[in-house]
């Protein structure tokens, strides 16, 4: 009597095609090959290198960056509050660490072992909001703040909210971009409307181009719901000008777009002439706070904090109707709550020790050592890259990455094509196999047609980065020889086509 | 020249309707009212009670349950490894804690501050796999294990994988169910095919009924992809019989269903005649390991561990083709990695101190105190509920909840209807407003038509639970009087309709 319709056998043919189509290059195929090589090395295999150098992802502590002492001391006491009662504790921890831990434990019901409110523990959101208010010199309400496990869940929430079934919904994303945006758009069934950053002009953003891209997309029947800005840029490192930020906000207002501002690199600025301004500050300064729906993302994984493994961050949501923020809260509540240690670390990052407090001096020293070293390493790497044949690289004004353009020999392009791969994939694969250096092909981030890049962090320690530069140089030279050089191909290029900067 | 199509203004009308339709009662409207009342109390308001009693969610540490010392000691050292080098450390921590922390820090590259592999740090997966192998007496490969931030992300991954656009995909879910399943199904655009648990027979599961429901769903054009089993049950607390488990596996094999086994309450069994068997063990015993795609979920939030705020858990995936597990890994990699402290805590939960180790005695004592107390509290609460007019409640064989059936006066049913609410919502709302006790209406979990329930944890401490029982009794009596009692309505009922148990 019962008729069975097709049974579903579990296979690539029977699962959600959005999942299959989603790509996330930062942990993509090159990284999977690297992980296999790492396991071979562990098993005693002989390879052309002794260890892998993980430049594929901003993960500083895996490359030896020391955690900031103050954060870890407070977190350690929050984990095991009994320590606060032993006589030795005064010898082991500074007094401001003890009082900060006591304050947090008093105000977080159940401590690190209990679910908090879904948006995060109230004291944490209050501390974060106060810090944002100090940073921007504009009020910030704790109710604007949603704590998250790193910045990634915030992007999921926004894509889930904005992308509707069968409505051709789309979001504008910079190219090159951090592939979390393309991946989540694909997962939720949305379309990516690209806007190109201008490489020849320091990866700057042209608002006129934004308008063109939006209108083209609309003519094609897409419903453009929002726009992603990454400032400072990832993988490109540029820091937006204030004028750019104002233009973007006017654009979003006029075109009724939600602005998703990825500001996770706000503490990583290396160019003394550049300054980070949050979109929250700019939108307030312009008097547009209630007219532009703005989601600002921050994270403890980047900056000099580098607490990637802890998964902490927040999103600050302004200009949304309450009926919609209630839906964000519901999405958060379906995940119960972000982990409490990550929440605490975020509150500490935003409220570090102040002058006069016992931990202040060490904290400042650790911060300045990390940031100073990152700046030196960025300059060393970019300068070395620019010395290579056919390679040009914009200065990293901010963030943790260099994104050099590489002009590849025609033979390399042909070989890659025959493998069904992009030419920059071939370059990165060979670099990995010959020197153990793990970088990500530019094609994983998007790039102008006919150009090739790779993204590398400058996170290897100052002792290691010289060797990385040397190995990269040796590899590049060999690669160019192996594939016959760049004579008769797309030629060298220069990054000096910028008229107004 | 450019024509603008409709602008999208941000409103309930313009966001993803799946998000709007998703419901998560455990943190739903009753809990939101409770949070407002809690804030009013904080501001000094006079209410009929002095504090809220949060029985809506399994969150033991917010109700005073002490964390297990061993876990917290190891985690505290992993947070701040410098402690391992101070002379006092030997006085502050047992030696097995020190060596466990040292071992984990050596084997987790970058410690708790670095992203791990997306599936989790290898040493953690290895420790978890070894523990599963010991539990089930069957081999377990670390590659089967994906660490997660609590069990919830695993449910997201599976729904995302199984539910395709426009294909009428569906998953079988028990009624009553834990509303994470209905919420994620709605979010990913899937359909819920219910199968009823038999309340009059201790919430048991009837495999013949499963088949009927499946065939009915298929006749309606649904493509049924998988089946959720919660064992021990949530909100129902029942522990499945081995025969039931075997039948379910045969059913999944015959009908090509993925089995999602929510086993997060596996350490919470209170009935001495009942025993927990994992579906992994049963599928191995039956020789069906490679024939039934099985996803088993576990978490550090439940059991006696109760580390909810840390967000740790794992899913063990067997019987899947490699092409599909690669897609799960990609989904995990888009989220970078689960938080490391949660991963470590999960490894510790699965590998507690052993007899002869310095921490063993305290660990066993803490575990037994918590589990013994939970058992007493469960019995006290269920027995008190069964004394109330028109209330009947199955014994809680496992998990953390009682799910009593309440027969409500017709007048209450009418009043609720006039408010556009379910009658059990009215009951829970009044209980909250009059006594500050927060429980969740049965309608949030699903229930047989015409029946009403609520879910309450038995997590208030032994000092508090007596008061909860007294207040619940007073409330219930008053409620029944207020609404005219249950004469002339659906009458009382008895839970003795079970023929074969």
UniProtKB/TrEMBL annotation, chains A, B:
It comes from Chlamydomonas eustigma. Belongs to the class-I pyridoxal-phosphate-dependent aminotransferase family. Alanine aminotransferase subfamily. Homodimer. Its EC number is 2.6.1.2. The keyword Transferase applies. The keyword Transferase applies. This is alanine transaminase. The lineage of its organism: Eukaryota, Viridiplantae, Chlorophyta, core chlorophytes, Chlorophyceae. GO terms for molecular function: L-alanine:2-oxoglutarate aminotransferase activity; pyridoxal phosphate binding. One of its GO terms (biological process) is L-alanine catabolic process. Pathway: Amino-acid degradation; L-alanine degradation via transaminase pathway; pyruvate from L-alanine: step 1/1; Photosynthesis; C4 acid pathway. Residues 95-461 form the Aminotransferase class I/classII large domain. It is an enzyme of class 2 (transferase). SUPFAM superfamilies: PLP-dependent transferases. Coiled coil: none annotated. Its cofactor is pyridoxal 5'-phosphate. It comes from the Eukaryota. Keywords: Aminotransferase, Pyridoxal phosphate, Transferase.
């Amino acid at each position: 009597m019962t008729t069975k319709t097709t049974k579903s056998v579990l296979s690539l043919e029977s699962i959600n095609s959005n999942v299959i189509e989603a790509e996330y290059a930062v942990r993509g195929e090159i990284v999977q090959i690297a992980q296999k090589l790492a396991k071979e090395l562990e098993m005693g295999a002989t390879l052309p290198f002794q260890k892998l150098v993980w430049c594929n992802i901003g993960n500083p502590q895996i490359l030896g960056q020391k955690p900031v002492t103050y954060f870890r001391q407070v977190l350690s006491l929050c984990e095991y509050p009994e320590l606060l009662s032993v006589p030795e504790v005064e010898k082991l921890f500074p007094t401001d660490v003890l009082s900060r831990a006591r304050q947090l434990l008093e105000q977080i019901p159940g401590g690190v072992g209990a679910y908090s409110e879904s948006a995060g523990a109230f004291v944490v959101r209050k501390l974060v909001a106060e810090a944002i208010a100090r940073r921007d010199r504009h009020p910030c309400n704790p109710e604007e703040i949603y704590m998250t496990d790193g910045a990634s869940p915030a992007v999921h929430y926004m894509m889930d909210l904005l992308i509707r079934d069968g409505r051709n919904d789309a979001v504008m994303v910079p190219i090159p971009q951090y592939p979390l945006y393309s991946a989540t758009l694909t997962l939720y069934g949305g379309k990516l409307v690209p806007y190109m950053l201008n490489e020849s002009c320091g990866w700057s953003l042209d608002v006129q181009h934004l308008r063109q891209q939006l209108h083209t997309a609309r003519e094609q029947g897409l419903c453009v719901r929002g726009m992603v800005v990454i400032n400072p840029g990832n993988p490109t490192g540029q820091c937006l000008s204030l004028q750019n930020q104002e233009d973007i906000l006017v654009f979003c207002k006029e075109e009724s777009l939600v602005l998703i501002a990825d500001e996770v690199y706000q503490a990583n600025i290396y160019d003394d002439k550049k300054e980070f301004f949050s979109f929250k500050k700019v939108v307030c300064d312009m008097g547009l706070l209630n007219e532009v729906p703005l989601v600002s993302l921050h994270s403890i994984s980047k900056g000099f904090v580098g607490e990637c493994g802890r998964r902490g961050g927040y999103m600050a949501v302004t200009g949304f109707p309450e009926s919609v923020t209630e839906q964000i809260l519901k999405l958060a509540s379906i995940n119960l709550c972000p982990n409490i240690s990550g929440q605490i670390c975020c509150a500490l990052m935003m409220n570090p020790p102040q002058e006069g407090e016992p931990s202040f001096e060490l904290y400042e020293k650790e911060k300045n050592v990390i940031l100073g070293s990152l700046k030196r390493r960025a300059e060393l790497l970019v300068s070395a890259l620019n010395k290579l044949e056919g390679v040009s690289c914009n200065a990293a004004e901010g963030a943790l990455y260099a994104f050099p353009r590489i002009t590849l020999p025609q033979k390399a392009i042909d070989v890659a094509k025959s493998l069904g791969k992009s030419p920059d994939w071939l370059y990165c694969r060979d670099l990995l196999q010959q020197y153990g250096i793990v970088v990500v092909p530019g094609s994983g981030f998007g790039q102008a047609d006919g150009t090739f890049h790779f993204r590398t962090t400058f996170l290897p320690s100052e002792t290691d980065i010289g060797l990385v530069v040397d190995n990269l140089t040796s590899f590049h030279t060999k690669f160019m020889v192996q594939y016959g050089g760049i004579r008769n191909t797309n030629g060298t290029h220069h990054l000096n086509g910028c008229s107004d900067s």
